[in-house]
Design goal:
The chain has about 325 residues and is of the alpha+beta class. It contains ten helices and nine strands. Strand 4 and strand 5 form a beta hairpin.
């Protein structure tokens, strides 16, 4: 939780977004998917050794085909490095007379600029295009990274941590169970808390009832019995509380109804067929009994929803405490 809170800070989110953008832009895109490709690079862009080789070949070509314009064009392709390369190659060229002739042809040229077709413009253009693409990718990915950390993580957190079911769990944890021993009563063998929050349309909570020694005695639970109106989320107007006893032949059920459902004759009659009806109220206790078990369900907290439906007709939330005691069985 603290990590998420830190990430949500604008400065931290921006820094993380920039780091992610740089990594993806440089490593993934710049070196992996879209590396800069050097094509038709000008001789002026070559390493010194390759420049030396280039000029030797230019001199060799001039010796066999003494075209002055072509010799000047090839020399000018070296750009500002031309004089230095000419001096380096002169020292080791085998035919000094031929080299001097080549040098006399090209050295009077004062404007040492790349000529069209020399390849320099193409190589530098491709390089700049590649760098520009990487920079744009870094900026875009940085913005996307910032957006992910600032907006998507909170949305993901809301979806995973603020659902009605998880809200219900939090409310249940905040509720205190009754200490029956404090009032001189026997402690139940099983005691549970459960909460419904509107929007949990699949609400159906059940619990296993075990003896102190771990023997299975039965089960109990609560689920949605009736809804009112249409649309989502469902508007729950009644719940069913049930108790199953392994020593009994049937499951006992009672219906916890909203004030509206309890006082609406058609709804009351329809739900009465599912079990004995009770109107929900804060502090209300409902008792279920089987051959060997007694269950007391206490409404510790409740709130009705507000909307276009009849007043007090559906629940915004409901917290129920369930306590189960064993009953003394008659001698066999």
């Amino acid at each position: 939780m603290n990590i998420l809170a830190t990430i949500k800070k604008p400065i931290v989110a921006a820094a993380l977004g920039l780091i992610v953008g740089l990594f993806i832009g440089l490593v993934v895109l710049g070196w992996g998917l879209w590396p800069v490709q050097w094509t038709n690079a000008a001789p002026s862009s070559l390493q010194p050794d390759y420049q030396n080789d280039y000029l030797r070949m230019a001199v060799d070509s001039f010796v066999r085909n003494p075209v002055n314009d072509l010799a000047i064009q090839r020399y000018q392709a070296l750009g500002a490095d031309g004089p230095a390369v000419l001096n380096r190659v002169k020292a080791g060229y085998p035919d000094q007379n031929a080299f001097q002739t080549f040098s006399n042809v090209v050295k009077p040229t004062s404007a040492i600029t790349p000529v069209p077709g020399g390849g320099s413009t193409s190589g530098k253009s491709n390089s700049m295009t590649g760098i520009l693409i990487i920079l744009i990718a870094i900026i875009v990915l940085g913005i996307l990274g910032f957006a992910v950390f600032k907006y998507m993580i909170p949305l993901f957190k809301n979806r995973t941590s603020d659902t009605p079911a998880t809200q219900a769990i939090d409310l249940t944890k905040q509720s205190e169970m009754t200490d029956y021993s404090a009032s001189g009563q026997e402690q139940p063998i099983s005691q549970f808390m459960t909460t419904y929050v509107m929007g949990d349309d699949l609400f159906d909570d059940s619990f296993s009832i075990d003896s102190p020694s771990g023997e299975f005695l039965g089960e109990c639970g609560i689920g949605i019995s009736e809804t009112i109106g249409v649309g989502e989320p469902k508007k729950v107007t009644a719940f069913e509380v049930w108790l199953f006893d392994k020593n009994d032949i049937q499951t006992v059920t009672k219906v916890l109804m909203s004030s509206h459902a309890f006082n609406d004759a058609p709804t009351f009659q329809r739900l009465q067929a599912k079990g004995e009806p009770f109107m929900v109220d804060r502090g209300k206790k409902v008792t279920l009994e089987t051959a060997a078990l007694q269950l007391v369900a206490t409404v510790t907290d409740m709130e009705y929803g507000q909307g276009a439906l009849p007043e007090n007709s559906y629940f915004e939330r409901l917290t129920l405490e369930i306590a189960v005691w064993p009953k003394m069985l008659p001698p066999a």
